[in-house]
């Protein structure tokens, strides 16, 4: 019996290793990018320093996984962590809480071989989600999921395999003809579930809605702000670059500013306001030719 269990473990490890990939996470001023990652056991998460002084520290990990704590600065530019257990891994920069956090969703590579996940624009300006498997044998269903922030996903379709249990490569697709959301950037993933209840996630892919209204800032919170001031920011980036946030008081006097690194898609930032007097303020956010102004209140 022990021999059978050992062989099964070796088989699963070998299967996971064949799908292993290196997933890069950028560590920059007050954010991990991406902050939510789907991985397979055997994958390597590569934390890569961009700027600032940070760390990456595990806060919650699956049983049997190794905790980690590593600096991320100009002298410590790369830290690799290998996923060894199925489950959810939570991590953070302890220097920049509460905003600088991340999540790794780890699954085992299933024999069906989920691969070639893609999201493309159709002629009707909709999102076409497609993926491949080596076989549909022993697959219960595929869950197509959508998100407007790249972190929280909702199932939009449950697709059953053909039922024939083909042992040849299968191409699957689903057209999201009505997202029902106004966000410029929409995120997709597919969850494959087998007949035993085991599951595997694809990577997360972003889709740009062509008819979406151009908007730089999508969220500022909290507002009002308590002392000391921490303003959490979500903003759209049409390309990699920087967004400048400038704080002014109600009389128009400049107080302070911060630059936030931007990747293409929805970005998360953190403006540390510090101890400033209670009152009415406003922030001016600028990236490229886009400039927007928002009122905030400090309690």
Describe the protein's architecture and organization.
The protein has one helix spanning 2-18; strands spanning 22-28, 31-33, 36-40, 44-49, 54-60, 69-72, 78-82, 87-92, 101-107, 115-121, 127-133, 139-147, 154-159, 170-176, 185-194, 199-201, 205-208, 217-221, 229-237, 241-249, 254-262, 265-274, 279-287, 290-298. The chain has one helix and 24 strands. The strands form six sheets. It has a five-stranded mixed sheet with strand order 3-9-8-5-6, with no helix packed on it. The protein starts with a helix and ends with a strand. The radius of gyration is 22 Å and the shape is globular. With 299 residues, it is mainly beta.
Structural classification: mainly beta
Give the strand line-up of the largest sheet. 3-9-8-5-6
Q: What is the name of the CATH topology of the largest domain?
A: Immunoglobulin-like
* Major sheet attributes: 5 strands, mixed
> What number is the mean pLDDT?
90
- How much of the residues is beta strand, in percent? over 45%
Helix content: under 10%
Order of helices and strands: HEEEEEEEEEEEEEEEEEEEEEEEE
Basic shape: globular
| Poorly predicted runs | 1-17
Helical segment tally?
1
Oligomer state equals single chain
Rg over CA atoms: 22 Å
Q: Compute the number of structural domains.
A: 3
Number of strands: 24
CATH class of the largest domain: Mainly Beta
CATH architecture assignment of the largest domain: Sandwich
CATH-assigned homologous superfamily of the largest domain? Immunoglobulins
| N-to-C span | 65 Å
């Amino acid at each position: 019996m022990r021999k059978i269990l050992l062989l099964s473990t070796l088989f699963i490890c070998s299967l996971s290793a064949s799908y292993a990939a290196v997933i890069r996470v950028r560590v920059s001023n007050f954010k991990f990018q991406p902050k939510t990652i789907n991985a397979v056991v055997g994958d390597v998460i590569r934390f890569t320093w961009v700027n600032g002084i940070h760390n990456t520290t595990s806060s919650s990990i699956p049983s049997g996984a190794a905790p980690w704590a590593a600096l991320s600065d100009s002298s410590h530019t790369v830290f690799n962590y290998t996923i060894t257990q199925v489950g959810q891994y939570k991590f953070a920069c302890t220097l920049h809480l509460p905003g600088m956090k991340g999540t790794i969703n780890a699954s085992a590579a299933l024999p069906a071989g989920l691969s070639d996940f893609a999201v493309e624009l159709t002629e009707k300006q909709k999102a076409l989600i497609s993926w491949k498997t080596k076989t549909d044998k022993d697959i219960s269903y595929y869950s197509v999921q959508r998100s407007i922030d790249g972190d929280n996903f909702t199932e939009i379709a449950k697709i059953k395999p053909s039922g024939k249990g083909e042992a040849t490569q299968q191409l699957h697709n689903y057209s999201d003809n009505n997202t029902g959301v106004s966000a410029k950037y929409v995120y997709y993933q597919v969850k494959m579930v087998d007949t035993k209840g085991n599951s595997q996630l694809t990577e997360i892919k972003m889709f740009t809605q062509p008819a979406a209204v151009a908007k730089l800032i999508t969220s500022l919170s909290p507002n009002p702000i308590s002392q000391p001031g921490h303003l959490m920011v979500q903003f759209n980036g049409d390309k990699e670059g920087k967004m400048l946030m400038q704080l002014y008081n109600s009389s128009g006097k400049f107080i302070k500013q911060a630059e936030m690194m931007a990747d293409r898609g929805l970005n998360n930032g953190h403006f540390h306001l510090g101890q400033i007097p209670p009152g009415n303020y406003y922030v001016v956010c600028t990236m490229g030719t886009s400039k927007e102004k928002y009122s905030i209140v400090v309690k």
